[in-house]
Structure formats: structure tokens, C-alpha cells
Amino acid sequence: MNAIAKDVEAATQPPSLELISEITQFYYREARLKDRQQYRAWMDLLTDDIHYWMPARTQRYRKDERAPSIYDSAYYNDDKFDLDRRLKRLETGTCWTEDPRTRTAHLVHNVEVEHTANPDEYRVYSVSVVYRNMNEDEEHTLYCHREDLLRRVGGELRIARRLLTVQQNVFLNKSLNVFP
């Protein structure tokens, strides 16, 4: 049996309520860490080989079913080194878009868990909503469909892959200093 067939077979096995609860709680903790801007603690939730990817959205006709490529334009197409570099920039204190700091509320909805052929990895679909308030009167809401690959590392869940499909074609924000 090939790897795709094994993944399909594994995905048909329903996850336990305990697993769904564990993953949902993991996402709630991740949201809290990001809302409190505890980004170093958030980085601990990522695997060393993380791929954090949010391709730019393009308007296409229905018949054009091409999937985005990592070579296309993207808001994020980062590994752990790139994410660390983004955090270091925020930590300098000279990031003008973060002084005063952005206030956020990360919401996670529609969590759906699937097994994969690897018993230590789970494919998880969810919807992320990030409300963002900057300065006195700037408000933005970002809606993303997320497709994650969660992996157990040392018994703990970690994010190994995150694909964020943003629903807006055009961002009206001045900056994107949040991690959906």
C-alpha cells in the first residue's frame, strides 16, 4: 500500500474524543500565547522543521483549480529560522508598527482532526479569526482556513506544518505583525 492510500485509510478512522479535546486545548493555548505576545513560548509549540505558509490570495475563475505553489507570492513562507528572525525584529523595540503594541484576539473554530499513516502525526483543519486593534482607531479582522500537521515530539504536540488560506484578497492593514 502506498503512502497516499495509507493516509486515506488512516483518515477514515475517527479520532477519539480525548484526542480532539487535547488538540483543541493545544490550539486554545496557542491563541492565548499569541494574544499575550509570548512569542518565544509560542515558538516552543513548533517543530524544528516547521513550514509556516500563507500564500497570497489571487482571484481565479472556478475552472482554474491550480493549487498555490511555494514559489508564488506569500505573506509567510517561513521555516523556524525565518520565524525567529521576525521575532527578533519585534524584540528590537524599533518596529514602528508595534509601538504602541497591537492588541489581538485569536479565535479558533471548526476544529476537525484526522489520523495520518504516521501514528504520531495528525492532520487538523480549522478556521482562525484574528481581530486586531492598532493605535486609537484601526481595526482589522483576518479570516484564515488552516490546515496543520501536528506531530508528537517527546510526547507533546507540536506544529510541523501550517497552511493558512486567507479569505481576503486585499489587506487593508499597514502591516502584518500577527501570526494567524
Task: Give an account of the 3D structure.
The structure is a single chain. With 180 residues, this protein is an alpha+beta fold. It contains four helices and six strands; from the N terminus they run H-H-H-E-E-H-E-E-E-E. The longest helix is centred in the N-terminal third of the chain and has 19 residues, at 17-35. The radius of gyration is 17 Å and the shape is globular. The protein starts with a helix and ends in a 14-residue tail after the last strand.
Short description:
The chain has 180 residues and is of the alpha+beta class. The protein has four helices and six strands; from the N terminus they run H-H-H-E-E-H-E-E-E-E. It is globular and about 55 Å long.
Topology diagram in text:
Blueprint lengths: L2 H9 L5 H19 L3 H5 L2 E10 L18 E5 L1 H12 L11 E13 L5 E14 L3 E16 L2 E11 L14
Largest sheet: 6 strands, mixed
Structural class: alpha+beta
- Flag low-confidence runs: none
Mean pLDDT: 87
Helix content: 25-40%
Strand residue content: 35-45%
- Separation of the first and last Cα atoms: 36 Å
Rounded radius of gyration (Å): 17 Å
Number of strands: 6
For the largest beta sheet, what order do the strands appear in spatially? 2-1-6-5-4-3
Could you state the order of secondary-structure elements as H and E? Answer: HHHEEHEEEE
Shape: globular
Question: Which terms would index this structure?
Answer:
180 residues; alpha+beta; 4 helices; 38% strand
